[in-house]
Design goal:
CATH architecture of the largest domain: Sandwich
Shape: elongated
Number of domains: 2
Distance between the termini: 126 Å
Strand content: 25-35%
Number of helices: 4
Oligomer: single chain
Amino acid sequence: MSDIAVEGATATAGTQAPKSGVYSSSTLDQDDFLVLFTTQLQYQDPMNPMESYELASQLAQFSTVQELSNLNDQTLQVQAYLGSINNAQMLETIGKEVIGASDQIQLTDGVTSKSSYELTDPSDVTVTIHDQNDQVVRTMAMGVQEAGTYQVQWDGMNDAGEAAGNGSYRVEVKAVDQDGQEQDVETTVSGTVYAFRVVDGMPYLVLDGPEGVSLPIGSVQEVHNPAVEEPSDSITEVSSAEDLAKQLTTENLLALGGLALTLF
């Protein structure tokens, strides 16, 4: 006599379990689990019923599946909540100045975005500009530079002396120290946050305009308010009538006299 296996239980041949439908999915949800569980109980061999420990094992599996399903739902809710918080925080950076690690430089009508590099030791520096196809556009020998931070000085021209097209380019900085050793050089970008953008699930800050450099959130190193010039104080404090008399010139007196005639 042949047996038909149903999730670890057996049913006598000739006693068919009802078909509940054809499953096209390769994974089972908790409803499918319940259907299979109740089916195997209904059609188990009465002469060899499921042992209690087997029943407990099946129930434990169902409980685990249900808990994992609930945990997955809760995880998705937490991710959505954290995403909304991050988006709100990123919106607060609009209009602020940021600095971040990036080798990108944007060229717009001959004007480049702000790109810098930092040297830890005096080095002979060469700056190379690459296009989006990684082809060399411009090579600039900067000579020996002392340790410090330098801004990339690119006039938007290629090696042939022609204007490069608008777009995004990559900056490569090669620095060789006095011992002939090539140094690791970090390049950064800076600018005012124009917009917050999500591309393929990744958040970016767009700097200095709609076509500006897109800086990944994880690359941001500094965020600060733009510098505001203090208004000049045009009011001079005086402590006595004598000080006031010293500050009043002939032109001031004539102006005051004209004002008095106008009023009266």
